[in-house]
Design goal:
This protein has about 100 residues and is an alpha/beta fold. It is built from 2 helices and 5 strands; from the N terminus they run βββαβαβ.
């Protein structure tokens, strides 16, 4: 995947919206980053703290490896999402329900 490097100069904050998606008995952490309109997905075996933390960290690393720095991550206020919030203290977190 090639990144459009001209978007890195945009002064708008990079926001990430994430939630767990259930399809045919499988679970995925799916995120969309704005304004890039990049959708990332990570297969997870369960909705426990470690699985969600690992999946979100991986998605953040994909963005960082291409020079993008998410400023805010919006997630469902599910208790497992809340439990990983301290692990990512360098980001602002908003616990608003995704609609």
């Amino acid at each position: 995947m090639k990144a459009d490097m001209s978007l890195k100069t945009v002064l708008r904050p990079l926001n990430m919206f994430a939630d767990v998606l259930h399809i045919a008995g499988k679970m995925f952490l799916v995120s969309v980053s704005e304004p890039l309109k990049i959708t990332l997905q990570s297969r997870i075996e369960s909705e426990n703290r470690m699985a969600l933390r690992k999946a979100l960290q991986g998605q953040l690393e994909v963005l960082r490896s291409r020079g993008f720095m998410p400023e805010t991550v919006y997630m469902d206020p599910h208790s497992m999402f809340r439990s990983i919030t301290p692990d990512f203290h360098q980001h602002r977190w908003c616990d608003k329900k995704l609609r």
